[in-house]
Amino acid sequence: MVEAASVKDSEVTLGSQNCEDCTPVIFILGFLNSQPSHYASLQNYYGQYTKDIITYVPKMYDQHFWPSGDNGHEFIDQVYLPKVNEKPNAPVIIHIFSQNGGLQFYYLWDALNDKQKKQVKGFAIDGAPGLFSAHPRYYMNQRFYMWPRNEKTDIKFWLKCVPQHIPRSLLYTPLILLGFFDQYSKRMEKFDLPQNQLYLCSKDDKLVAFKYIREFVLSQVDSGKSVVLKAWEDGVHCAHFKTHQGEYFKLCGEFVKRSLADNLYDCHLKAKL
Q1: 3-state SS, one letter per residue, for the chain
Q2: Residue 228: CA atoms inside 13 Å, Cβ hemisphere, count?
Q3: What is the full per-residue pLDDT of the chain (273 aa) written as tens digits?
Q4: What residues form DSSP beta bridges with 25?
Q5: Is the dihedral of CA 212, 214, 216, 222 positive or negative?
Q6: Calpha distance 49→46 (Å, rounded)
Q7: Phi and psi dihedrals of 115, rounded to 5?
Q8: Contact 200, 125 (CB under 8 A)
């Protein structure tokens, strides 16, 4: 009973703790072609838990949405490891967006040793992971979604996106079906991933089909992980932290507290009891 009350107190006062070594480090892995400033509101929200928030946008896919061949080591070697080496006792949380962030996380988890993995207390993932659909409609939506906002019009979709990308989508369909497209999520299902997991997505996502995300989530439930899935009925891919901000941030806050509870108790309160 004392422990439960103490953990609750630590959740309230987390932002005021002054422990340089063990306050959490939060990494945000952005979706393809976004800018770090795109996640400013999410960074501000996480700021109540820590000052150590690093936003990084990898480039795991090329301009045609084919895997770029990047194995993620720029982030791992130049961003992630230097930061966690500064705070070896700090819990790490990773917030991932789309397949771009998901593939980067796959390479990160594959590269970490067992001790480094234990430092990661949880991950939240938005709009992933899942299999890319072989349906041409999904590919054209992916291409149109990645265009600069000032060029994104219905006229350009029908006069530019559709004529240019129908042939490419027809090429991608057999390549995906034959396994030439890197579907990392099936391999990631076999990993022993962090215990605390939060999945955020839309049931009518036009880029990654919800059924594939759900399949991945169920595989983690079967593995005994602590999993929360929030699937909105509709919404634009990876835009829920703007369109459903209140609910989105509440879920993220609950996830952070769930991920850090044991760590906070051990660090800040155990010596006082």
Answers
A1: CHHHHHHHHHHHHHHHCCCCCCCCEEEEECCCCCCHHHHHHHHHHHCCCCCEEEEECCCCECCCCCECCCCCHHHHHHHHHHHHHHCCCCCEEEEEEHHHHHHHHHHHHHHCCHHHHHCEEEEEEECCCCCCCCCHHHHHHHHHHHCCHHHCCHHHHHHHHHHHHHHHHHHHHHHHHCCCCCCHHHHHCCCCCCCEEEEEEECCCCCCCHHHHHHHHHHHHHCCCEEEEEEECCCCCCCHHHHCHHHHHHHHHHHHHHHHHHHHHHHHHHHHC
A2: 17
A3: 333 333 333 443 444 445 556 789 999 999 988 899 999 999 999 999 999 999 999 999 876 777 888 889 999 999 999 999 999 989 999 999 999 999 999 999 999 999 999 999 999 999 999 877 667 777 677 667 666 677 777 787 777 777 877 787 777 778 777 777 767 888 999 999 999 999 999 998 878 889 999 999 999 999 999 999 999 998 888 889 999 999 999 999 999 999 998 655 455 544 433
A4: 52, 92
A5: negative
A6: 6
A7: -65, -40
A8: yes
CATH 3.40.50.360 is the classification of domain 21-131+194-272: no
> CA dihedral in degrees (109, 95, 183, 187; nearest 10)?
30
Cα–Cα distance between 196 and 198 in angstroms, integer?
Answer: 7
Q: Where are the domains of the chain?
A: 21-131+194-272, 133-180
Strands 226-232 and 120-126: unpaired
Contacts of 148-151 spanning 24+ positions with Cβ under 8 A? none
Two tokens at 9?
A: 């107190």
Residue type at position 173: T
Q: Tell the residue number behind the tokens 């995906």, with chain if given.
A: 176
